[in-house]
Design a protein that fits this description.
11 helices; mainly alpha
Amino acid sequence: EGAGGAYTVAWNVLWVLLIPPFRDFHFYFAHRTIHYRALYKYVHSLHHRNVDIEPFAGLSMHPIEHVYYYSALAVSLFFKMSPFVFMWNGWHLNLAPAAGHSGWEDHWQADQYHYNHHANFECNYGGPMYCFDYIFGTFREKLGKSEEYKGEWRNPSDNSEGLQGRKGEGEAKGTRYLQVDRNLLNFYPTRADHIAYWLYTAASLYALYASVVGEVAVDPRLLGLNLAVGPALVGVVLMKVTGDRSPLLWPFHKESLPTSAFHLVGALAFVLAVVGALTEGTSEAYCLLNTCQ
């Protein structure tokens, strides 16, 4: 029993130390995934309306993005961690966005790395802990013209006003990538495709809620699968219906095959995390309410 107790303590201490680097790893792939055209247009663009970020902008996002973001809790469920480690993971998820969106000012909590992402858009997807942005050429070290950035995105004047869209291929086709209303007060959806997407979101989240509280009996695996891949599939369908001719991999459609494959595998692992987290959590809640055998 003493050896078992020591093992448990060591296991928990290990995961307390591993949660922050794991979170950064998860964030890079989850964040980059929602920059693919179908998810950005209907989900992540809401978060990007704020270009001069401050702490409260950190968790100001679409409900589907919340599902993806909090899928980092899946690791706590998969490895049957203690409630303390689960709470530590949750605290990190709740507090880190405020720190990451703390602005450009030169103070102890300033995060200029992510500020650059909101200002220039196609850069700095992860955090400075890992070197993925350096490896794949999407690191920007400053506002204005960057000496480090090697990605495909080019702002019209290569400055911090990049949210007006990329001139050239996408704009010539009438499919400007960044059709974002920058007025934070205009948060109500007005276009038919965005209204349809919000209705899909509401229906999906209600189905999840109804299953957890026992109002309806739905296979948790279907709920998890729907919220993992459904948002992208519905986005693709709405793109086609509305005549959006952007490549599905936009703005990463010109990347090399190895780079695209690496990030698509990462996106798949991230999708499985969403499915697993929702399936595990919903299954346990359903069984508690419905006395599963």
